[in-house]
């Protein structure tokens, strides 16, 4: 089903790997189509609780593979180009909209749209060689995949514009200092999988609804109304009852689940 990515599930964790290591996992149109399908599969699968997004070998995603792209202004209409770009944007849209937590395991370059894929995840873990770059201005483009919206909300407008307007790298140390990354790990995928397993051990409905409540765009009144609805759902959830019983009885909770 997939040629440019790998999709694997293990014990409730779905790992999506962009698998074009010869070009540092730069994507072509087929890659984007497969990413969109894989994300839908992960979010729709009741046996998946956490999603890990990563790249094969020494790179996360180096953005668009220009050797696989047409000469845009000569071979495509604006409508055709908009259709292509919406496909890339939809990867970001799915990651932002999904309630299941997503974790980016970033090794090596995450550039352009590849950077935006990492920023769209709920959490990021980097290794020492990771570098995130909104490098669109360096090639005469704008951040059309979400970076100009995501980065200011993650690190503040002024600092975000420094990176957006210069196209310079955010290295691993800066990513942690800016709050973009949870940690620097020797093996970002292993650390991301460990973090996913930690989240997996918690009541799933509470995790999903907490993730949904953390919405940059909502007002406090909207937050408060949603919190009442979500809290009531959780009060009536079997995993909440088991978590309370386990706490009272001083034991580990045992949730009845079917994992993919």
From TrEMBL:
Any GO MF annotation of the entry: isomerase activity
Q: Give the UniProt keywords, A-Z.
A: Isomerase
Give the protein family. Belongs to the enoyl-CoA hydratase/isomerase family.
CDD domains reported for this sequence: crotonase-like
InterPro entries for this protein: ClpP/crotonase-like_dom_sf, Enoyl-CoA_hyd/isom_CS, Enoyl-CoA_hydra/iso, Enoyl-CoA_hydra_C
Q: Does the keyword Isomerase apply?
A: yes
Descriptive protein name:
Enoyl-CoA hydratase/isomerase family protein
Q: Does the keyword Protein biosynthesis apply?
A: no
